[in-house]
What we know:
13 helices; six-stranded mixed β-sheet; alpha/beta
Amino acid sequence: MKKRPTIEMVAERAGVSRQTVSNAANAPHRLRPETLKRVLGTIDELGYRPSHAARSLRTRATGVIGCRLLPSNYGGTGGVLDRLLHALCDAARASGYNVLAFSVGTDDEEIGVFDDLLRRNAVDGFVLANTHHGDVRPDWLVDQGARFVAFGRPWGVERPRHSWVDVDGASGTSEAVNHLAGLGHTRIAFLGLGEGNGVGDDRFHGWQRAMQDLGLPVEDLVARADDGIASGKALADQLLDAPQAPTAFVCVSDAMALGAMRCIQDRGMETGRDVSVVGFDDSPVASVITPRLSSVRQPVEGVAHKLVEILLSELSGTHRRPSRVLLAPWLVRRDSTGERPSTGYAATQKGAASRRGRRQSKSPST
Amino acid sequence: MKKRPTIEMVAERAGVSRQTVSNAANAPHRLRPETLKRVLGTIDELGYRPSHAARSLRTRATGVIGCRLLPSNYGGTGGVLDRLLHALCDAARASGYNVLAFSVGTDDEEIGVFDDLLRRNAVDGFVLANTHHGDVRPDWLVDQGARFVAFGRPWGVERPRHSWVDVDGASGTSEAVNHLAGLGHTRIAFLGLGEGNGVGDDRFHGWQRAMQDLGLPVEDLVARADDGIASGKALADQLLDAPQAPTAFVCVSDAMALGAMRCIQDRGMETGRDVSVVGFDDSPVASVITPRLSSVRQPVEGVAHKLVEILLSELSGTHRRPSRVLLAPWLVRRDSTGERPSTGYAATQKGAASRRGRRQSKSPST
């Protein structure tokens, strides 16, 4: 691999000082035309590209933060990233910055866009979303001297060289378990993603930890599949067919939770009365379906604020060590979680009465 | 008001040609340092700012399209604008462009951001969303010589000076009426927005036109309020209390439709069997609630493609006359619309049987 040309190499080849090369790029009117022409020719010849980090630091010229727009996957995690984009635009704007959004299909294409934007000096830095195991993007950006902050932990990397902000998914699923245990549930299942997904594993561990802390069984109470309503339905079906079926589901996503709710309905039971369900992400659907879905909500505004704060402090050069920020989500309690029915799936009078009471309090007009 | 300084005024004051002033901004290395210094000083002194349009045309430098990110209003129209942003990023990317998204609270603030982005030459043009009566933004942009395309018609403006792309809402609500009439409904109500809202009025007119074309009554079948689930519920309640109650609702939004569905449920009836409901926008909620909501879907990808196509052709200077593009939406038929019950709200055996049949066909596993 060819060594990346430095400003010193250009200066030596053109027979000028380091400062003159810098001026050619940043203050061309300070140079005599013939000098400018020679330096620009040498820059071109060697393929020299000024360090983006150094240039950003010096000029902070663009006022723009680049961020990939991930495909919307409502009910899944995509809704959260749309909410994050809104929050990011708000937080950036409050600091005089805007967000440049781009849509690509793969991480490699994303790196291609990073490269293009850096070459054209079109952004000051990036927010990197959707981090995952084997993610090649952070190292690429660090090697380029680019400034960025990740939304998501550096899964599988022991000594990350960059700053990140993430939501503590495990604490969210722990809270869900504690809520359900407080309603009398003991067989609380987890509907999760395949192992090796950082976000999915984190949420699984929170469920597992809380169950063990409460002395509740975890055997035969975990089912895993790719995210989606159909998956959630199939997994819930499978667990409800078991001899010792769960009375509650903690789900890795709202999509899984919606699937579990369909399964419960198709079995002639009622979610929140016969079987309880907790989703994750509090997607827009959660508050409008019937019964309304209890779900763990990510503090998206807080995440966006932290991302911008850290990125701007890195851009200003006052911030040298990578930051690590983990924010806690919280459970939004709605109608999909209720007391454990006293005898199997039979609707107890008590359960039915409490459900009627809740519904009436929401609809005083009926 | 002071006259905006022109390139001629700068050239005269600095004692140079028009071309020299242009070079000072775009090719400073072509000028002798003392000339450059004098011209830049005069530019500064007069507050001259090159025409953005002319500069974009010449340089097409940024590869960036600016677009305000409107607050998400899931269930309402906000979801459509999020979908549009994704589609816009895709369409822009396919042409080597990116989208700069910014979030502001008011049109005046939006103009402030336009001004800032134009001054800093940070974008080549804009997509203007959420056009409305008395919209001051298009004229401001035209007067600045900025390139832009609106998503939304220039409501209330007879001779717009800019290009726009919009969705033919009236044809969507007409299709909804025809669908319901085909199912035997004759008293088909419209739940709309207050008069004077361009989008709302357009959707109302489509309902009205189709009803009149079919010879159906329109008296006492319209209710209006601000968008929202609570509004939809209240309006549906009001119409269902009337002596000659409707058996179907065409709604200006999915939020209104969700409200109508709640009202129907709270009255102990079933949507799709006792009363039919059609929403507008096919928001993510529509396909996951029970029963699934029939809704008019906007061709967001087509809109984004047209917006980018028109903007780029205006940027390239090949496109001189404002374009006007109206795209047709289509009705997505789901379970919230069914045959008119033969006697009032009583569930007919036929209706119940056909509903059971539909449900079974969707859930082969149960």
